[in-house]
Amino acid sequence: MSMSIATLSVPQLRQRLHLLLLLGASLALSVVLIVFRVFLVHKITFVFLLWNLFLALIPFGLSTMLGLSAGRLKARVLLPVGAVWLLFFPNAPYILTDLFHLEPRAGVPYWYDLALILSCAWNGLMLGYASLTDMQQLVTRRLGWAAGWGFATLALLLSSFGVYLGRYLRFNSWDVVTNPVSLLYDIISRLLHPASHRGTWGVTLLYGVFLLLGYATVRLLGRLDATPEEA
């Protein structure tokens, strides 16, 4: 059965609202930490994290729209919106790699910058997991449990590959439109010559497994207090 605003139960709507409130509060903390740092040292060192958080919000917004839309609408837009979702999904776990920017800096305690980056990384990860949960549920309702987890696993592996492309080759989601030739060349090169790009597959597999284990843990934790009907 399709899930829509009209068919969502009151507990499901309440859970959705609670999730939005928690994510909103967590995002607000990250924004406050970034803005306060700017006022403290008059430097925009970590302002770029605001843009990264915005990019991480895009797949969450798309999956929320699909999860709350009517069944007829989802049937018409699921594939194109799903493709756009997959294109932007790596932006969520990508923020984890912003820990690379952590180093002692004058004027700000080291622990403050650590908390700032960790809060942004946490938000990126939680936005990604929440978004993937919505998409997995859509697949599961149509194709079954195995297909749902197969989709989630593939999405996380592809997102890890996307993280590599973004962090090490400096591509972003927009390059699919603005720089498709270079992007396609680098992807095909790594597919045809994997032995020459061991770092690519090391990052893809290691981060993919890490993200999958984390996602499975979060999903399991969410079911511990669920009733048999909810589980």
UniProtKB/TrEMBL annotation:
<feature type="transmembrane region" description="Helical">
    <location>
        <begin position="143"/>
        <end position="165"/>
    </location>
</feature>
<feature type="transmembrane region" description="Helical">
    <location>
        <begin position="20"/>
        <end position="40"/>
    </location>
</feature>
<keyword id="KW-0812">Transmembrane</keyword>
<feature type="transmembrane region" description="Helical">
    <location>
        <begin position="77"/>
        <end position="96"/>
    </location>
</feature>
<dbReference type="Pfam" id="PF07099">
    <property type="entry name" value="DUF1361"/>
</dbReference>
<keyword id="KW-0472">Membrane</keyword>
<keyword id="KW-1133">Transmembrane helix</keyword>
<protein>
    <submittedName>
        <fullName>DUF1361 domain-containing protein</fullName>
    </submittedName>
</protein>
<feature type="transmembrane region" description="Helical">
    <location>
        <begin position="108"/>
        <end position="131"/>
    </location>
</feature>
<feature type="transmembrane region" description="Helical">
    <location>
        <begin position="199"/>
        <end position="218"/>
    </location>
</feature>
<feature type="transmembrane region" description="Helical">
    <location>
        <begin position="46"/>
        <end position="70"/>
    </location>
</feature>
<dbReference type="InterPro" id="IPR009793">
    <property type="entry name" value="DUF1361"/>
</dbReference>
